[in-house]
C-alpha cells in the first residue's frame, strides 16, 4: 500500500440553497492524506465543516467537487467495507439491548454465531459495558450509549475509524480515561483513526498529527505533528513539550475562532438589518 | 397506581354517584337516563341470558376483519405513499381532509352495492380506519432519526434490510398508535352502520331498544359497547407503555 490510507483531492462541499437560505459552502477546497495506522485529529471552530468532512470521508456524502481515495480506490457515494463511523449524535438502536446493538452489524455480515459472541463480548468488556449487556440504551447514560456505538463499530474490525466528537457528553475525568482506552484500542487494532474533537488537549494527547481547521468553508490552516511515542498515555500531559503543542494549537485557532464568531455576528446583524 | 389514577377513579365514582342520586330523586326522568345501578343490572341480565351472543359475534367479526384490512392496507399504502413524494404531494389535501368526509353518508350506497350484511359494514369500517393507519405509518417513517439511517448506511445494509431492521422498528411506536386508532374507528364504523340500517349486531340491538323505548336495555347495551372498546384499548395501551418505557420515551 502507498503511504496514504485515505486522501482528499480538491474536495469541496456546497449545500444547495434551500428556500430563502443561501447555499452553504461548508468545506474546502481541501487536499490532504492520512497515513495508514495514523492517529489523526481534526480541531476547529464549531460549524466550520468538521462533520461534513467526516461524511465525505466515510462515503456517506458524495462531495460537490473533488475526490476521496480510500485504499487506492475513489469512493463512489456508498460507504466501502473497512470504514467504521461513530457519529456525534447517539446512534444506538433503542429497540435492541446493548448486546444486540453491538452484534447488529456482524449478524448482517453473516459471521458465524460463535465468532459474533467472541467479538461482541470482547468489545463490551473492552468498553466497560460487560455488566450492561441486557440493558436497553434508554437505561444508560449518554456517555455509555456512545460507548455502545463505539463497540458496535469495533466489532466490525474497520481499518479506518472515524469518530465525531465521541466524548462530547463526558466529563473531563472520564474523557481522559476514554482517551487512554482509545489509544489502547488504536495500538491493539492497528487501525487508522480520524478523531474530530473540540478539546485541544484531547487532540494533542491522542494524535500523531492534528489538522487545524479554518472557519467555514473549512480547510486546514496547518497540520501539526506532535511526535509522541506510540505507547503514550495521559501522563504525557505533564511534559513541557505537551504544553508547547497545546499553545501552538491555541494560537492557530484563536484568530480562526474569532473570525468564526465575527461571521456569526455579521450574519446576525444582517438579519437585524433585514428585520428593521 | 399513581395519585393521578386515584383522583381519576374518584372523579368517575363521584360522577356516577351524582347521576344515581339525580335519577333516584327524579331530577332526571327515567325516560331520559336510567340510574347507573339499573344499567349495570341490565348488563348483567343481557350477558347472563346470552341473548346478545349472536349480535356480538357478528359485530366483532366485522370489527376484526375491518381492523385487519385497515391496518394491513393502511400500512402498505403508507409505505408506498412515503416512497413516492410526488404522489404524496398530490394526495396531501385528501390526507388532511379525510376525516371531514361524512363516511356514514355513503353507507346506504354501500348497501345498494354490497347488499345488506357484513359486506357494507366491513367496507365502511375499513374506510374509516385505514386513513389513521396511513397517517401513522407516514408519521413514523418521517420521524426515523437521520443518524440511524446513516448508521444503516455505514453498516452497508441494503434497502430491504434498512427498512425491516431500522426504519420499521424505529417507526413502531407510531405504528402502534395507528393500530389503536384503526381499531377504534373500525368499531365506530361497524356499530354506527348497524345502528343506521341492519338486521343484526350490537348497533342494531341498541337502535332496536331505542325505537321500542327499552331505555334500561339500551343503556346496558351501550355500556357493553364501551366496555369492549375500553378492554381492547387498555390492552394495547399497556403494551404501548411497556414499549415506550423500554425505549426511554416516557
Ligand atoms: N445537510 C446540510 N444542509 C445544509 N447545510 C448544512 C448541512 N449540513 C451541514 N450544513 C452546514 O454546514 C456547515 C458545517 O457544518 P458541520 O460540518 O456540521 O460543522 P461542524 O461539525 O464543524 O460543527 C454549518 O454551517 C452547517 O449549518
Ligand atoms: Mg459536528
Please, could you describe this protein's structure?
The complex is a heterodimer of chains A (276) and B (250). In chain A, helix 5 (172-189) links the parallel strand 7 and strand 8 (192-196). Chain A is globular, with a radius of gyration of 19 Å. Chain A has helices at 50-58, 98-108, 113-126, 142-154, 172-189, 200-206, 240-275, and strands at 6-15, 24-34, 39-43, 65-70, 73-74, 83-86, 160-164, 192-196, 209-213, 220-225. Chain A has a domain at 1-78 and 197-230: P-loop containing nucleotide triphosphate hydrolases (Rossmann fold, 3-Layer(aba) Sandwich), CATH 3.40.50.300. Chain A is an alpha/beta fold. Chain A has a 6-stranded mixed sheet with strand order 6-7-8-3-9-10, sandwiched between helices. A 4-stranded antiparallel sheet of chain A has the order 2-1-4-5, with helices on one face. By secondary structure, chain B is mainly alpha-helical. Chain B has a single domain, classed as MetI-like fold (Orthogonal Bundle), CATH 1.10.3720. Helix content of chain B is 81%, strand content 0%. The model of chain B has no long low-confidence stretch (mean pLDDT 92). The complex binds adenosine-5'-diphosphate and magnesium ion. The site of magnesium ion has 4 residues of chain A, from helix 1.
Amino acid at each position: 500500500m502507498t503511504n496514504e490510507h485515505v486522501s482528499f483531492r480538491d474536495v469541496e462541499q456546497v449545500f444547495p440553497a434551500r428556500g430563502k437560505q443561501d447555499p452553504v459552502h461548508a468545506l474546502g477546497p481541501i487536499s490532504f492524506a492520512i497515513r495508514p495506522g495514523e492517529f489523526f485529529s481534526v480541531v476547529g471552530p464549531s460549524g466550520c465543516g468538521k462533520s461534513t468532512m467526516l461524511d465525505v470521508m466515510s462515503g456517506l456524502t458524495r462531495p460537490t467537487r473533488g475526490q476521496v481515495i480510500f485504499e487506492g480506490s475513489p469512493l463512489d457515494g456508498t460507504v466501502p467495507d473497512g470504514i467504521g463511523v461513530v457519529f456525534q449524535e447517539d446512534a444506538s438502536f433503542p429497540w435492541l439491548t446493548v448486546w444486540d446493538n453491538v452484534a447488529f452489524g456482524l449478524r448482517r455480515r453473516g459471521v458465524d454465531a460463535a465468532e459474533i459472541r467472541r467479538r461482541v463480548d470482547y468489545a463490551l468488556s473492552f468498553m466497560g459495558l460487560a455488566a450492561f449487556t441486557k440493558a436497553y440504551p434508554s437505561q444508560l447514560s449518554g456517555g455509555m450509549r456512545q460507548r455502545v456505538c463505539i463497540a458496535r463499530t469495533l466489532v466490525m474490525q474497520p481499518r479506518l475509524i472515524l469518530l465525531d466528537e465521541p466524548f462530547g457528553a463526558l466529563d473531563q475525568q472520564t474523557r481522559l480515561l476514554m482517551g487512554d482506552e482509545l489509544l489502547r484500542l488504536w495500538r491493539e487494532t492497528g487501525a487508522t483513526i480520524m478523531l474530530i474533537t473540540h478539546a485541544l488537549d484531547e487532540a494533542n494527547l491522542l494524535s500523531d498529527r492534528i489538522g487545524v481547521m479554518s472557519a467555514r468553508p473549512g480547510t486546514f490552516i496547518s497540520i501539526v505533528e506532535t511526535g509522541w511515542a506510540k505507547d503514550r498515555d495521559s501522563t504525557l500531559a505533564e511534559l513541557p513539550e505537551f504544553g508547547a503543542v497545546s499553545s501552538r494549537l491555541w494560537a492557530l485557532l484563536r484568530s480562526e475562532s474569532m473570525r468564526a464568531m465575527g461571521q456569526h455576528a455579521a450574519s446576525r446583524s444582517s438579519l437585524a438589518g433585514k428585520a428593521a | 397506581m399513581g395519585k393521578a389514577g386515584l383522583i381519576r377513579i374518584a372523579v368517575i365514582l363521584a360522577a356516577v354517584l351524582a347521576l344515581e342520586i339525580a335519577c333516584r330523586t327524579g331530577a332526571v326522568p327515567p325516560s331520559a337516563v336510567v340510574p347507573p345501578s339499573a344499567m349495570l343490572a341490565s348488563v348483567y341480565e343481557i350477558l347472563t341470558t346470552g341473548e346478545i351472543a349472536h349480535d356480538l359475534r357478528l359485530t366483532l367479526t366485522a370489527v376484526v376483519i375491518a381492523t385487519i384490512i385497515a391496518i394491513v392496507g393502511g400500512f402498505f399504502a403508507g409505505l408506498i405513499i412515503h416512497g413516492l413524494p410526488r404522489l404524496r404531494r398530490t394526495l396531501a389535501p385528501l390526507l388532511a381532509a379525510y376525516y371531514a368526509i361524512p363516511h356514514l353518508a355513503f353507507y346506504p350506497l354501500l348497501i345498494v352495492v354490497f347488499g345488506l350484511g357484513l359486506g357494507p359494514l366491513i367496507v365502511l369500517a375499513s374506510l374509516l380506519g385505514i386513513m389513521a393507519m396511513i397517517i401513522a405509518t407516514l408519521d413514523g417513517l418521517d420521524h426515523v432519526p437521520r443518524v440511524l439511517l446513516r448508521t444503516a448506511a455505514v453498516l452497508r445494509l441494503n434497502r430491504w434490510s434498512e427498512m425491516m431492521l431500522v426504519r420499521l422498528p424505529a417507526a413502531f411506536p407510531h405504528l402502534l398508535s395507528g393500530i389503536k386508532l384503526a381499531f377504534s374507528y373500525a368499531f365506530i364504523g361497524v356499530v354506527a352502520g348497524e345502528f343506521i340500517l341492519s338486521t343484526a349486531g350490537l348497533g342494531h340491538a341498541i337502535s332496536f331498544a331505542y325505537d321500542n323505548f327499552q331505555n334500561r336495555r339500551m343503556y346496558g347495551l351501550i355500556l357493553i359497547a364501551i366496555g369492549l372498546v375500553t378492554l381492547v384499548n387498555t390492552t394495547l395501551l399497556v403494551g404501548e407503555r411497556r414499549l415506550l418505557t423500554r425505549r426511554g420515551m416516557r
